[in-house]
Design a protein that fits this description.
About 30% of the residues lie in helices and about 25% in strands. The chain is of the alpha/beta class. Helix 2 packs parallel to helix 3. The relative contact order is 0.12. It has eight helices and 16 strands.
Length: about 350
Amino acid sequence: MSGSQNYINHVALVLDASSSMSHLNRKVVEVADQQISYLARRSQELDQETRVTVYVFANEVQCVIYDKDVLRMPSLDQLYRVGGMTALLAATLTSQRELAQTAQLYGDHSFLTFVLTDGQENASHRSSAAPSKDPGELVRAVAEMVETQGDNWTLAVLVPDQMGKREAMQCGFPKDNIAIWDATSTQGLEDVGQVIQEATEKFMVGRTKGIRGSRAVFSTGGGTVNKKSIEAAGLTPVDPAGYQLIPVARETAIREWVTASGHTYRTGCAFYQLSKTEKIQARKQIAVLEKKTDRVYTGPQARAVLGLPDTEVRVKPDHNDDFTIFVQSTSVNRKLVPQTRLLVMV
């Protein structure tokens, strides 16, 4: 294998260790350790070298592991200690500036950073790591850094609420690189592990296709479906005689509604409209409906056009203006949601 084809991923976790994280102390270590063992496994399966960096931040920013081979990583058990305030901007700036000094010789290097916080910035202006004492200047410094990062840099942040999301957007984080998590419970942190793992999977699989960075690391649909992406994926519409769209009037089992509408129920013939966040298995087919024309597109490329990997993945309902997502049902009892539509292949 020549040097140019050698994929080298630099994955960084930048973890909030302020006092308010103390109730999640052990869970942070567990989730981070799980993420690292997942990275180790996928690095071997995809033949991608992965190096891990871990920062923790409270009043100050500390790098506890730097660019270490994922196969040789220790547990974070002895390295994650909570106490203090939240120097979020200083941690973001420091992590990216220090990682930028990593050698990128011989190979296709890519940088993926996840910043996790349970609160708002309140201490960077006092941190020795901050380039300025002015909070407004620090926000501008982060925004400028995000704007000027190369195409092989992906910077994502997990925040506790809408206010955190607004602040992250002011700092220049791309909208689809911001996720909200429930910072009040260990279950919330468990979900964070799942979200980070799915985003990393998408990133690593993307690497094998020549993608070097992402401004939509948490996106599983939404803005990605449009006329251009449908054409680029080679999707052709299903013959209108081959399907029917049926309004769902009440909560009922899928087989019952298909037969009540005068169709024979065959396993896999019916697709329900995605109406809440849920896991979609790799074998499930997806159909995309163009709202204006009621044209339907399906096939393996429909997953690709939504940016879904060929693994089980958590998908949010698509808030796209032009398209609606439908998911194949392989169950006879799935409850249909009133005021949605059912797509039946006839």
